[in-house]
TrEMBL record:
This is Sulfatase. Residues 436-456 are annotated as: Disordered. Residues 446-456 have a biased composition (Basic and acidic residues). The conversion to 3-oxoalanine (also known as C-formylglycine, FGly), of a serine or cysteine residue in prokaryotes and of a cysteine residue in eukaryotes, is critical for catalytic activity. It comes from the Bacteria. The modification 3-oxoalanine (Ser) is found at S74. Residues 26-296 form the Sulfatase N-terminal domain. Residues 1-20 form the signal peptide. Keywords: Signal. The keyword Transcription regulation does not apply. It comes from Bacteroides xylanisolvens. CDD domains: SGSH. It holds the Pfam family Sulfatase.
Amino acid sequence: MNKLLVSASVALGATSLSFAQQTEKPNFLLFIADDCSHYDLGCYGSVDSKTPNIDHFATQGVRFTQAYQAVPMSSPTRHNLYTGVWPVRSGAYPNHTCANEGTLSVVHHLQPLGYKVALIGKSHIAPKSVFPFDLYVPPLKGGDLNFEAIQKFISDCKAKGEPFCLFVASNQPHTPWNKGDASQFNADKLTLPPMYVDIPQTRELFTHYLAEINYMDQEFGNVLSILDQEKMTDKSVVVYLSEQGNSLPFAKWTCYDAGVHSACIVRWPGVVKPGSVSDALVEYVDIVPTFVDIIGGKPQAKVDGESFKPVLTGKKKAHKKYSFSLQTTRGINAGSPYYGIRSVYDGRYRYIVNLTPEATFQNVETKSPLFKEWQSLAETDSHAKAMTTKYQHRPAIELYDVKNDPYCMKNLAEDAKQASTISRLDKELKRWMKDCGDEGQPTEMRAFEHMPGKRK
């Protein structure tokens, strides 16, 4: 990591000046991690992770308990985040994807309002015409963030009196989990999620994942320190997002709650109550319209997201009734030829439709040495058998009471008492799919048309 000589205490400095007392437009800084399960952060309940910067940041803002993204993969997630448009509508629904020409992004919405808009770090978006950032700086060799570029951008905007919107996209804790100090975690004492097969190999690998979360937390602390050094903390709305869950089974690449449930923390000095918690249901697609609404502007064209500014200001407690998600396995590395998944969540129940349940679910994780160890153990261990089977062979529909079963362990789809819940959620899911132009399996089979590397 290219280090800045700044202290964590500076990064966690107090804020005081209310936005209502300011005449200039607020700045926006959004930091997004990469494949970080929300429950592996201290402020979201982890007893093992070490995330002091994120945890302290949560005491300065509002922590959302029900923030969701539309796709449990990085590329479509980032397109969805930066455009405020549903994945199938924008065309960016498979992985390694691109948005349809003519799609507008945050750049188009904020530049007319006088903002400089930049992305520093991981990109994973295309084409440039949809994302014409004023500045894009890729990661350094080895995948680290370019902190000098971050500071220069903020400093330049400050000197010119230009409000900015800066997206800082970390590569951590994406595999191969080779950053940070794993020795600070005792593998034997870790608390593992119940869907994992508890063997020494799982525990050892998990220490390296936690180490990279700690590394990402330090990155976040450095970014906050830069903002404080430039005396822009009180003038900036800062958002932290964890992205989809990690790449171990039942998170990334799935529509189980662990796959699409994200950490979301917002600090807005003088407006958001420090240390508050919101159960409002919000989605990544809502970020762009929220930024525009905070400024007092209007999107340049229709977006699918809805501003949750009223939740931030305390005028409303609720935001949405449903969140939606999809997974397109076609085209991912070592993925099934097709395995489409669609899902809707209502704040308690998660309903999942597997478009081709007769197929076997595959990805790079099912080819990994760890999963093969789980499969070997499945010959004699009932939990290993249940988990490996559940991951690769799924029924047509699944229903989980996430409030009481956050890891989606018990499928309630066959419970006659849940018939009305299934009917209601199925109706909402079909309505959303129709609205987006999602035809289900035909849409899955057209995935290559939206993947530049797969086009013929």
